[in-house]
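Researcher: Next sequence.
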Amino acid sequence: MTRAAAWLVLAACASAPHRAEPVGVTAALPTEPVPAEASRPARTDDPIVRRALLRMSVLRSLSIERPVAGVLLSRSELMAKLEQHVASGYPRHAIASEEQFAKLLGAIGRSVDYERATFALIDEQIGGFYEPSDETLYLPSDLDSRSGAFALVHEAVHALQDQHFDLKKRERYVEGASDAMLAQGCLAEGDATSAMADFMLEDEGRTAIDVPDSTLSHLVDEKSSVPAYVQRSVFAPYVEGTRFVNALRRKGGWDEVNRAWTQPLTTEQVLHEDKWAAQEPALDVPAPTFSGLDAAYGFVEIDQKGELGVRLVFESWTSKDEATRAASHWGGDRSALAKDGARAALAWRIRYDEAPSPDREAYARGAFEILTRAALGGAAAKTFACAARAPSAMAIARKGRDLLVLVAPSECAALERWSAAVLSN
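Model: Next structure:
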């Protein structure tokens, strides 16, 4: 995902899937369903919100610094509020670039309206959201008491996070920083979901860290009209974030999670807790240029996707297991999207960690072999493969520990010359 992935994380942050109703909870906070389409104004003394904050303050070990307003909205009103939040915080060009990026790589179809597909998924799943700008917790009025309780405590944790770690600052859009923004989203969602699981399991005398991580999985509905890439992008912060937070809790409790909020974070560190413990930084990768193409392309955006963003795209080309292997040992990356009038081109340079001797290029070589077969569907030369498919050709090249993915409305020979120019730097 590109830096516009941040608005997807925002949408995911607003989602507490309510169709699955785990067992083991005997103290749902709302005592009865609220009539559909009912709404009421925000109240800072709302007793249900106050009760949720008190309960989660204890379970999450974060003090309540100030009251939080609560409001019930009809589902249509809630979605309108969420869309307004996204529009005010995330530039239109960032969302448009994310759509272009996904389409060029074949992650979504060319006829898909990326933004509307995402909001359609959110509309199906939304259980509420916390709005940092007005410190208000919003819930849909059509949830039953059990689902409403789970959504309420999840969002109450976000309110506590805001009071201690300043979500207002953390959710700001940062140009070219998809990886860091997605990592922060994973931390926020993993934190809230892990604490919510404690609430759900409390009557059984268990906590989230007593549940095997194998129970966590991507919630992709193959029958859904929403593209699988969009579904994976929205749900990944919950799944990977919860794994990460649970790993930190097993190591040092909630204090270790609090420490994660104080340090820079990458999605590589989210996926590999040992790399977070070592504070392994992302490698600096130069942005690809377009000088190797004949047309006069001008940059639209330059971004860093991170290991999770890389893996989500690779899952569009191959199985989850193969995609995970191809994305593992990510060291750093830089993507560049450019346009020449109506034509668009993409260059994505991924640098892998150095493998143990004697084959120090083994990680990059393994990824090249997986991806050329999966994405291009044929045998490849040792360092370059290309498939010409209208309206654009796609090529994958490798030099040393660098992998390069190129997409442009050009012949494969032109892409090969372009790859040589990019990888010469």
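Model: The first helix runs from residue 5 to 13. The chain has two domains: 5-277, 298-423.
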